[in-house]
Design brief:
heterodimer, A: alpha+beta, Arc Repressor Mutant, subunit A, 2 domains, three-stranded antiparallel beta sheet, 56% helix, globular, B: 158 residues, alpha+beta, Alpha-D-Glucose-1,6-Bisphosphate, Chain A, domain 4, 4 helices, 8 strands
Amino acid sequence: MTPTRDVFQAIADPTRRQIIGMLAGKSLNVNAIAKEFDITRQAVSLHVQFLNDCGLITIRQQGRERYCEAQFEKLNEVTDWVNQYRKYWDNQLDSLESYLAKIQKSKP
Amino acid sequence: MEQYNTFKQEDNIIIHTRLLDAPRDLVWEVWTNPAHIKEWWGPNGFSLTTKSMTVEPGQTWDFIMHGMGRDWDNVIEYVAVKKPSLLSYKHSGAKSEEYNFIVSVLFEEMEGKTLLTMKSVFKSKAIIDELNRKVNAIEGGKQTLNRLTDYVKTLVEL
């Protein structure tokens, strides 16, 4: 899959942030990650795939298990303050844009 | 529409523009009505509670953002309010007065759409340079998890 997703999208979601945090110390398989959450294993698996697509983690097949490992160099995309600010407002304005679209559509 | 989505830094000012497919009055409304603003303001995955909002010069928007397992208090002080064309506000949350900056949001009509221009004006270019250096230092020096938390914190405090 082409990595059209970026690190900012990856860390925008609380579950994914938590997964990254769990992988900061050690590599884990999907089952071990899923145990820590109340959501289904399938949902966790999708988050893991998302992180993989962003290049924030890699998935390594070991026997029958798939182990996830963090690739934190990717977080360096979060560079200087102006860049963070830019990204932040880009996301905010995206959010504003889609909200405006939504409320205009729902009008009779 | 893409050519209207721009970003640039000019000395001590950071400028964002965005052409929005909505009438100006509505865009003004979603910036100044608590019921609307909570639907789009703040990092993804966060929710927002407005304690009070008085969109008048010298008055404030006092709100709490909920996310990452805690509450984040925020206050924005309105500096200039000219419905429906200009909204300007100051963040008073910064630790030092030096880092406070004023954001002016211009709403212009453009063939039924609205051109939004956000100008974030800092005390000096040196302040922006300093923020850049600080963030770089944080990025370079800390544990990944702390970095993530700090990063999200910078987003919340913007």
